From TrEMBL:
<keyword id="KW-0479">Metal-binding</keyword>
<protein>
    <recommendedName>
        <fullName>Cytochrome c domain-containing protein</fullName>
    </recommendedName>
</protein>
<keyword id="KW-0812">Transmembrane</keyword>
<feature type="domain" description="Cytochrome c">
    <location>
        <begin position="154"/>
        <end position="261"/>
    </location>
</feature>
<keyword id="KW-1133">Transmembrane helix</keyword>
<feature type="transmembrane region" description="Helical">
    <location>
        <begin position="13"/>
        <end position="34"/>
    </location>
</feature>
<dbReference type="InterPro" id="IPR019251">
    <property type="entry name" value="DUF2231_TM"/>
</dbReference>
<dbReference type="InterPro" id="IPR036909">
    <property type="entry name" value="Cyt_c-like_dom_sf"/>
</dbReference>
<dbReference type="InterPro" id="IPR032675">
    <property type="entry name" value="LRR_dom_sf"/>
</dbReference>
<feature type="transmembrane region" description="Helical">
    <location>
        <begin position="46"/>
        <end position="67"/>
    </location>
</feature>
<feature type="transmembrane region" description="Helical">
    <location>
        <begin position="79"/>
        <end position="97"/>
    </location>
</feature>
<keyword id="KW-0408">Iron</keyword>
<dbReference type="InterPro" id="IPR011429">
    <property type="entry name" value="Cyt_c_Planctomycete-type"/>
</dbReference>
<dbReference type="InterPro" id="IPR009056">
    <property type="entry name" value="Cyt_c-like_dom"/>
</dbReference>
<dbReference type="Pfam" id="PF07635">
    <property type="entry name" value="PSCyt1"/>
</dbReference>
<feature type="transmembrane region" description="Helical">
    <location>
        <begin position="109"/>
        <end position="128"/>
    </location>
</feature>
<keyword id="KW-0472">Membrane</keyword>
Length: 455
């Protein structure tokens, strides 16, 4: 097998010989059509055809040997093989006709030349498909030509089709186009160098000669990733020719493999490194940094009669923006009662900022707060509330900021508050929380504890 492949590798070297002789024959034949004495041209064409036949046989032999490697699509290989044999057979036929037909005129010549050009072009095209893939002719064509041919044009800046970033599939929108552009010319349905095919998703997990291209969740055993991340001067580096994968592409592929290499996987900031988050912004204009909760939700506009009722009872009610119906609600009276607390239920779905500071709010009244499922910030400063009220705050799943300045909250209350997963900032100046307790929790990366002042 090794000797067969060794000899077969000479196929690309000799394949251009019959093409060159055919071109020579066509040119000489065309010139001879306009000469009175055609015998000398006829003789040269006959010699050229003999050269075509001999070189075609050599080309066919080396091609058959090369095909034993099994790297090529059988259907495409069959078309290329029989077209090549057809060129040799047609050359023999033409040589016999030129030698045996005394009235070989201009009409015959034009027909023969046209058939030769067609056969050689079609054979060469099938060879190109074997070597570079089905779409090799248009891979680097201008966008206008690709559009005419029905190609899907990717965004040149981002490298992916423009769409909502939350619906971008890592494999379908980034990894697959990456492989198509930089790897598929040698690893496709028609040509499978090293037994590796990167044409389809399932092919990524089919064992090749050097191992499994991708092992889901195990980067170290993924042979494909090993090859593309080798030093450029390593003989096993992939791709051996053309533009290698960029650093961003390597990090995306690394992330995808480590997270399971699912065909429907999307980017999730929870398991993306800060470096990958920045690379996505820089090279793809995609920002997967976590957004504030208020930017992720949409609510319906509140009935203005309900807003008017709250305003009449001492509340200020303001929308977060012209097109944002979330509300910033604050009580402006000096003493709040149960009736005012109950009114909040009417617009509870829209409240995200709530200010109940310095209004005599007690633990009992705080416990009567309605369900505020979009509450992200609450200001309770200068009220006689204690640790008993902290359990009430734990039920708000998206609470990010709490101001407890000048309250009766102690170390025990702080422990309860730190169990709130969404909490990011906590104001505790002039409370019963100790400096020691704050220092012990200063390393909490999720919560910034402000022990020096109020908002």
């Amino acid at each position: 097998m090794d000797m067969e492949l060794f000899l077969g590798r000479f196929h690309p070297l000799v394949v251009h010989l019959p093409i060159g002789f055919i071109v020579l024959a066509v040119i000489i034949e065309s010139i001879g059509l306009f000469k009175k004495d055609r015998q000398i041209y006829k003789r040269i064409v006959q010699y050229a055809l003999m050269a075509v036949i001999v070189s075609s046989l050599i080309t066919i032999a080396t091609g058959l040997l090369l095909s034993q490697g099994g790297e090529y699509n059988a259907e495409t290989l069959g078309r290329h093989k029989w077209l090549g044999i057809g060129v040799a057979v047609f050359s023999v036929l033409v040589l016999v006709l030129k030698m045996k037909i005394p009235k070989y005129d201009r009409k015959h010549s034009m027909i023969v030349s046209s058939v030769f050009i067609f056969l050689v072009g079609l054979t060469g095209h099938q060879g190109g498909v074997l070597t570079h893939g089905e779409e090799y002719l248009l891979t680097y064509a201008p966008d206008a030509i690709k559009n005419m041919a029905g190609f899907e044009i990717a965004d040149s800046k981002k490298g992916i089709l423009p769409k909502n970033q939350d619906s971008i599939l890592i494999y379908g929108d980034i990894v697959k186009p990456m492989f198509d552009q930089k790897c598929a010319s040698c690893h496709n349905n028609d040509k499978q160098k090293g037994g590796l095919n990167l044409e389809g998703y399932k092919d990524l997990f089919t064992e090749a000669e050097s191992g499994y291209p991708i092992v889901q969740g195990v980067l170290e055993e993924s042979e494909l990733f090993k090859r593309i991340s080798l030093p450029l001067n390593n003989k096993k580096f992939m791709p051996p020719k053309g533009k290698p994968l960029s650093y961003s592409e390597l990090k995306i592929l690394e992330y995808w493999i480590n997270t399971g290499a699912d065909s429907l996987a999307v980017f999730d900031h929870k398991n993306m490194t800060p470096e990958l988050l920045q690379l996505m912004i820089r090279d793809y204009n995609l920002d997967y940094n976590p957004r504030p909760y208020v930017e992720t939700i949409v609510v319906e506009e509140v009935d203005q009669q309900k807003v008017a009722l709250l305003t009449e009872n001492g509340f200020s009610v303001n929308r977060l923006g012209e097109d944002n119906f979330l509300l910033d609600v604050g009580y402006e009276g000096s003493i709040i009662g149960g009736e005012q607390i109950a009114l909040l239920k009417q617009i509870g779905e829209n409240i995200t900022f709530l200010n109940l500071s310095n209004c005599g709010l007690t633990d009992t009244m705080l416990a009567k707060l309605p369900e505020l499922r979009h509450l992200t910030k609450i200001d309770l400063h200068s009220n006689p509330i204690t640790d008993n009220a902290m359990q009430q705050l734990q039920k708000y799943m998206h609470l990010e900021v709490i101001n407890l300045y000048d309250t009766e909250v102690s170390d025990q209350g702080l422990k309860l508050l730190l169990d709130i997963d969404s909490l990011r900032r906590l104001y505790l100046w002039k409370t019963k929380v100790t400096q020691q307790m704050v220092e012990e929790n200063s390393d909490n990366v999720n919560v910034l504890i402000d022990f020096g002042g109020a908002i």
